[in-house]
């Protein structure tokens, strides 16, 4: 601390739950979020689940005077839902889409259609790399079929941060990670990048108990989801890391506690997370925090690799099943073609040809063939990505174990 | 040049054209490539279009003694086809998939199924970021429907290099860019990253005229493709850039000239590109080459943005057409449902109900509905990505123009 001036940075992070036609009292809540952001001047606002571009445009107009810089990240069928508002210039933008993000046929879960991504904004005051993101949702904790996908996302995110953060002085990540603090994905992300958890590091904390961001006090949360967790769960995070000769300290962390301050409805079904960070230049570069915890990190990577392996085997099984189904449908079609040709050639004329059921069967077989082939291809891609991630993790493990 | 030792790096780059069942004399050529690589010791080998994992495994076994480090990048349905062999340790790996890569229904072009990506290897001697990659193929130069996709890829690649290269001392890129040297995509990539073209910078050159890598002398090239270019075209590149206090010089660049040295067949339908680079540490950091050429760069970005805009409008048109088709098919289905219900309810009993043609029509409508909906969703994603890229380019243009 050589008397260098301190930069105080106030960050607001919120999963807005603004799905057109589906989210309750959406317009009212987006208006409320806009009003609050205008009143309380933050430096950086990271929003997720702003699915409608109209909502973003409305916010942009409303916040133009106090947050002159903003960006909306487009991807997937619906969009990424990510946007950034900033008081300081955003110099460059990058969108990284995860390789895996659920299944297109799980319409009720919808993750695939959103093209879940990390939005990266470079720039502002000190070279600051700020990321806004959301990982694949967890729909059933006990039998979590999406765990391998979420782990691949956590891994890709960690790799992405490692590779892009060298240009920055401070990395800042805010978003809905859809993982509890002790989950393997969070440990993997934090261990492999050295990111620190603002909640754990904060000097002062104010808000829901244990920093929870999905709480029963919020009138929009699904109470049945929270039954095993009566106090709520913490899945929205602000994580940070100083890269070069800087130190970052979290002075204060706050969450909303159900209804928005002074209002009768909450901002969203998630609580907002607000952090005040102190960034200061230091004489010597901060030592690598990674080296000291190599062994623990190797354990986490091993655990994650095991889960990815489980996902890989499930995906291989799916690929095989759908491939077999496609072959069967093709055989049926060929059989039908042979029968039709036989009839045309005048064989078996003693019996009437059942045209209607024949056509129905042919169309059914064709439909199954197309569907099964599509799913076979999709799971083939899934296998490649899971396999590739496993390879990368193996390489990292070897490197970790070979370090003196 | 403060008497620091020079690192001499020999690089081999080849599009191997090793497609199972389709590429002629594949096994023989892969064997030949392996033998040559073993004889002539390069430091780094960047291969593309190694579509079969078996070919990679064979190469790996054969090259294990001289190139102990290697990686195969998995993505897409078929794979990325990219692999790296290195004499020096590969410390970290990253695969970046482009957001856009052709259309799944253009089966004859196949790009979509390959999951075209950039494979990034970090590590080796001096922190060296080496990229192996391939961009979307050009199938018709005069009416190039894939130009916007290739431009989005070139842009994403440039952004990716800008954001990941800060951790490296030298960036090295080898691959089949599927673009002629004067094309807008190459100018965009080079202008926005500051990468230098080994062919243009080489002190000594030996090989095909103008450094061409698709030449009529190669017995595997499609002669009709090369009719407008009797000398051949140059689409395979080795590009490089020194980041921090290093200088890189290209001492020598070579290409093969049809048949492999001492053999009667070529390695591939592309010529191999071999570069010898000199890397030396310098006292002061190399000045930014970007600032000096801001105006020219702004022109290139504007040109690229115009092309992306053309692609955007085409994609919007497609999205609209397929959406309309889906709505029409849905209407037809509803109409049929109404007719069927009417018949069941005993209306219009005086006429026989044409079951067969009714069923055929219903299945046809259903098929069209599914297909059109799928394509509508696909083009929606395409619109989002093209729109997002246009946004990013606009932001960069503004930043370029606002610079003093």
Your description of this structure?
- Two copies of one chain form a homodimer.
- Chain A has 404 residues and is of the alpha+beta class.
- Chain A has two domains: 7-288, 4-Layer Sandwich (Deoxyribonuclease I, Chain A); 291-402.
- Chain A has eight helices and 13 strands.
- Chain A has helices at residues 26-39, 53-63, 111-114, 147-164, 184-193, 198-201, 294-344, 355-402; strands spanning 6-18, 44-50, 69-72, 83-86, 90-97, 117-123, 128-134, 170-176, 196-197, 204-206, 236-242, 246-255, 273-281.
- In chain A, the strands form two sheets. In chain A, strands 3-4-2-1-13-12-10 form a seven-stranded mixed beta sheet. A six-stranded mixed beta sheet of chain A has the order 5-6-7-8-11-9.
- In chain A, helix 4 (147-164) links the parallel strand 7 and strand 8.
- The longest helix of chain A has 51 residues, at 294-344.
- The radius of gyration of chain A is 25 Å and the shape is globular.
- Residues 286-291 of chain A have low confidence and may be disordered.
- At the A-B interface, strand 5, helix 4 and helix 8 of A face strand 5, helix 4 and helix 8 of B.
- Chains A, B: It is an enzyme of class 3 (hydrolase).
- Chains A, B: Pathway: Sphingolipid metabolism; Lipid metabolism; sphingolipid metabolism.
- Chains A, B: Its EC number is 3.1.4.12.
- Chains A, B: This is sphingomyelin phosphodiesterase.
- Chains A, B: Belongs to the neutral sphingomyelinase family.
């Amino acid at each position: 601390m050589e008397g260098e001036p301190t930069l105080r940075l106030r960050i607001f992070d919120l999963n807005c739950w603004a799905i057109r036609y589906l989210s309750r009292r959406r317009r009212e809540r987006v208006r409320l979020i806009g009003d609050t952001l205008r009143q309380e001047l933050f430096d950086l606002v990271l929003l997720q689940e702003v699915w409608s571009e109209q909502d973003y445009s409305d916010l942009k107009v409303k916040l133009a005077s106090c947050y002159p810089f903003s960006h909306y990240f487009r991807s997937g069928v619906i969009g990424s839902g990510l946007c950034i508002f900033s008081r300081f210039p955003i110099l460059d933008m990058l969108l990284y889409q995860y390789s895996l993000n659920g299944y297109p046929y799980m319409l009720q879960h919808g993750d695939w259609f959103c093209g879940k991504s990390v939005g990266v904004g470079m720039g502002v005051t000190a070279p600051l790399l700020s990321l806004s993101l959301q990982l694949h949702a967890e729909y059933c904790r006990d039998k979590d079929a999406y765990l391998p996908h979420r782990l691949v996302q956590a891994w890709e995110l960690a790799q992405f941060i490692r590779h892009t953060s060298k240009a920055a002085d401070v990395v800042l990540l805010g978003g809905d990670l859809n993982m509890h603090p002790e989950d393997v994905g969070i440990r993997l992300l934090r261990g492999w990048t050295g990111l620190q958890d603002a909640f754990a590091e904060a000097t002062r904390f104010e808000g829901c108990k244990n920093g929870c961001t999905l709480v029963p006090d919020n009138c929009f949360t699904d109470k049945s989801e929270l039954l095993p967790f009566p106090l709520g769960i913490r899945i929205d995070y602000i994580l940070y890391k100083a890269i070069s000769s800087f130190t970052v300290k979290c002075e204060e962390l706050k969450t909303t506690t159900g209804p928005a301050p002074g209002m009768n409805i909450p901002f969203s079904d998630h609580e907002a997370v607000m952090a005040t960070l102190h960034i200061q230049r230091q004489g010597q570069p901060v030592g690598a925090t990674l080296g000291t915890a190599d062994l623990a990190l190797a354990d986490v990577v091993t655990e994650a690799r095991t889960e990815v392996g489980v996902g890989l085997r499930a995906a291989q099984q799916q690929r095989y099943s759908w491939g077999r189904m496609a072959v069967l449908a093709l055989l049926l079609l060929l059989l039908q073609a042979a029968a039709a040709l036989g009839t045309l050639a005048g064989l078996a004329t003693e019996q009437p040809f059942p045209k209607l059921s024949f056509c129905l069967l042919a169309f059914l077989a064709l439909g199954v063939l197309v569907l099964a082939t599509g799913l076979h291809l999709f799971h083939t891609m899934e296998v490649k990505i899971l396999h590739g991630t496993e390879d990368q993790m193996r390489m990292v493990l070897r490197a970790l174990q070979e370090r003196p």
